[in-house]
Design goal:
Helix content: 25-40%
CATH architecture of the largest domain: 3-Layer(aba) Sandwich
CATH class of the largest domain: Alpha Beta
Radius of gyration: 28 Å
CATH topology of the largest domain: Rossmann fold
Number of strands: 24
Number of domains: 2
Length: about 575
């Protein structure tokens, strides 16, 4: 899957007009339309919270009075509260026949499940840093997790990173497809082997250096390479999570890695420092030199992206208990010092702990119990509290800090520690893009979109007329003197067959209706017409409409094969 934006493939809105689908009075010119000053927009900020005791046992049966929420340090009143608890069924008593399991839901029943009750799981495999054996033993438990965790309506995806991100299995409801994808990956090479070889080569160069400057240069060269890979990986994961911004429901990313260094190359500067003392060099201060490669801000930005898009991060360090010794000392003619190997390990585990903590997830580090890690993730999906509070009147794209407390200090709480209350513009952009990429049925306005025959242009592109039909009964109009006033804003994006996406185009359209005609619009719809310019071949069109008064939204999509039919 690509998420590249290109203006060549742009859904260029080149003309727009609108008309009622039945006889109604003509619209006033836009200049005569009164400005809508009233807006019906009651928003709730929802926070999912996992509560455990100090041994990790989940706590059930709490009420909203047991919790406190603070936004930017200010207490908020909890307005929405419920507990999710998908408990396993008790065993059948001795002597009784077990009841037959209920039949699986039909496709029609699955389609009726609300989007906000569905769960989406991304398995993100950092192949660049993984050793094959370590990766594949995690896969063993990951396959079992995929087999058991997906409920009707849930979807899972597999993405890999090998200096570029690749979607190996797009979102699917079929756990067998996920398992087969992981089996395929298990048979492929992992770049962690070459990365470890490079690590040892640099270690040897530093140990064999004749002077401080040569050793420091080797450490810097390694740190720059590691930092480059780190930034590419973070950029790819941020891009993937951003495509989920407009998708409703519970969303998690399971990151399997042996990389994501907090300070790329930190252990090499530690080694330079040790070699300097052994050889009596006068340089010193190598650890300070290494501080310029500190990427903790990237890890925090990754967590912020996840929080802004309602995603919880779970991280698994595939090296497990053997990461310190096996990774850095096996097959090596010269032993690595404990301090260097320990620094290398902490460098790639501190980052995982940070991103998990900031997003309300859990990091599995220094442990071979990968089955336990996946049981924890499954438990978080099945048992948590959902808390909500009324948002403020200001709706801007600004990060805000969240803190959730339980009054019983013997309990521990996990939740995302920040969120972004997005503007209507940003939220609609996200949801229009999500509508291009993923299955969604969010359409409260009940809009419909219909495309017409593509018309070729001299530049090789095509003009495609489309119509957006909006039921007038679903729009909100406010009385203003002799008229009722309302309006909507249309958002449009296009993706070509290669997955390249246009920017989201936006057009606002006011509507006024004389008071005498208000009753005449019942059962009628408004047809909004526009023309898009797009590339030849298969194109997907995503349309979003937001009622400018009530902020109720609707989304629809269509696809067009743009080719010369003459």
């Amino acid at each position: 899957m690509k998420t590249t934006r290109r203006t060549v493939a742009a859904a260029t809105l080149i003309l727009a007009a609108a008309a009622f689908a039945a006889d109604t009075p003509k619209q006033k010119p836009a200049a005569d339309v009164p400005k809508l000053v009233e807006n019906i927009d009651v928003r709730v900020i929802n926070v999912d919270v996992v509560v455990t005791d100090k041994k990790g046992n989940r706590i059930h049966g709490l009420t909203k009075n047991d919790f406190e929420i603070l936004e930017n340090g200010t207490p908020k009143t909890i307005s929405n509260f419920y507990e999710v608890d998908s408990k396993p069924k008790p065993p059948t008593p001795a002597g009784m026949e077990p009841s037959a399991p209920p039949p699986p839901p039909s496709l029609a029943q699955i389609e009726q499940i609300p989007d906000n009750q569905k769960r989406r799981i991304i398995f993100y495999v950092d192949n660049l840093s993984l050793m094959p054996f370590n990766r594949n033993r995690v896969f063993k438990e990951m396959k079992e997790f995929a087999k058991t965790v997906l409920r009707p309506g849930d979807e899972a995806m597999v993405a890999t990173f090998n200096r570029s991100m690749k979607i190996r299995a797009a979102f699917t409801r079929d756990p067998i497809q996920i398992q087969q994808t992981l089996d395929t990956l298990a048979g492929e090479s992992a770049l962690g082997v070459s990365g470890k070889s490079e690590w040892r080569d640099v270690e040897t160069r530093i140990n064999d250096s004749q002077d401080y400057d040569s050793a420091l240069a080797a450490a810097k060269q390694y740190a720059e390479s590691a930092q480059h890979d780190m930034r590419q990986s973070v950029t790819s994961l941020n891009a993937l999570m951003s495509t989920l911004a407009g998708v409703e429901g519970k969303k998690i990313v399971v990151l399997t890695t042996e990389g994501f260094q907090m300070q790329p190359g930190r252990e090499m500067f530690q080694l330079v420092d040790e070699v300097s003392r052994q050889k009596g060099w006068q340089g010193g201060g190598s650890l300070l030199e290494g501080m310029q490669y500190n990427d903790s801000n990237l890890i925090q930005d990754l967590a912020k992206t996840a929080n802004a898009n309602g995603i919880t991060l779970y991280a698994i360090h595939a090296g497990g208990l053997g990461a310190q010794n096996d990774n850095y000392m096996a097959d090596s003619s010269r032993s690595t010092s404990y301090s260097v190997s320990q620094m290398a390990l902490s460098n790639s585990t501190e980052s995982l702990q940070m991103m998990a903590e900031l997003t309300g997830g859990v990091a599995s580090v220094n442990s071979n119990n990968f089955a336990g890690a996946f049981r924890t993730i499954a438990g978080d999906l099945d048992a948590y509290y959902s808390l909500g509070y009324r948002a403020g009147t200001e709706r801007v794209d600004k990060q805000r800090n969240l803190e959730v407390r339980v009054k019983n200090r013997n309990y521990l709480v996990r939740n995302r520690q920040s969120f972004v209350e997005k503007s209507t513009y940003a939220e609609m952009n996200d949801r229009v893009i999500a509508n291009l990429l993923y299955r969604t049925k969010a359409n409260d306005l009940k809009i419909a979109v219909r495309s017409s025959t593509p018309v070729p242009q001299d530049d090789g592109l095509f003009r495609v007329p489309i119509e957006i039909q909006i039921p007038l009964d679903n729009l909100t109009f406010l009385p203003q003197g002799e008229i009722h006033a309302g309006g909507f804003t249309v958002y449009v994006a296009v993706a070509n067959a290669e997955g390249d996406m246009s920017d989201v185009s936006r057009k606002q359209h006011p509507i006024t209706i004389p008071n005498a005609d208000v009753d005449k619009i019942k059962g009628k719809y408004y047809t909004y017409q526009l023309t898009l310019v797009m590339e030849p071949g298969l194109n997907k069109i995503s349309v979003g409409v937001v009622d400018d008064v009530s902020t109720v939204t609707g989304f629809a999509k269509d696809q067009v094969i743009a080719k010369d039919m003459r």
